[in-house]
Amino acid sequence: MSEVLSKEEKLRILKTLEEDVEFRYAMAGALGVLEILKRLDTIESRLEENSKRLELIEKRLEEHSRILQEHSKRLEEHSRILQEHSKRLEEVTKTLNILVTKIGEHSEKINGLRREVSSLSLVVGALTESFYAKSVYEDIEREVLKRGEKVLERIRNARIDDVDIDLLVETDRVVYIIEVKVRPEYEDVGRLIAKIDIAKKHYPEKNIVGILAGAMIGKEIEAYARGKEIKVYTY
């Protein structure tokens, strides 16, 4: 610990400062160095804080990159499955066209085949909608779990007040009303809005979220849906 200067010592220093120019410059230089050192300490502290912030940002960027890669893989898988479905549908269509040409005048057989085609289209449509409904539910479930919510109920082909809903997912906070269409149109968005209004009356205590899901959703349809505060999931 430094000793306190006596009054005589202080007076002697003051007098020396007045009379000795070199001593006065030396003291001023020492004080300036101390001030510079203090400022350098402050700058170093700020640099350490900025370095920590940069490290945190880098970690967040790495996490975002990982999530984007996972989404990219999932999209590639969905694209592959859809391409397989498309090829199978093309093969089925070609086969049916050949059969219709060969049948010719056999009206009863033609009518029978038409009924089979109609039934097959319904089955394919149902399978496709089921696939999209499953994909949407998986996405919703992941989002719900991240927010700490709990899925209470998932109903495929639900009905509220005699109105059909492709998929209804209820959590402890939110009710999701999902419309599944391979190629949705404006009227599909309108029907979804009407279903959301019905759900709001049926679940007055919960937030209602509308979702439009499909494969071939045009930009205008997507913009229109988002403008109505409807989420759009494209697969």
UniProtKB/TrEMBL annotation:
<protein>
    <recommendedName>
        <fullName>DUF3782 domain-containing protein</fullName>
    </recommendedName>
</protein>
<feature type="coiled-coil region">
    <location>
        <begin position="40"/>
        <end position="102"/>
    </location>
</feature>
<dbReference type="InterPro" id="IPR011335">
    <property type="entry name" value="Restrct_endonuc-II-like"/>
</dbReference>
<keyword id="KW-0175">Coiled coil</keyword>
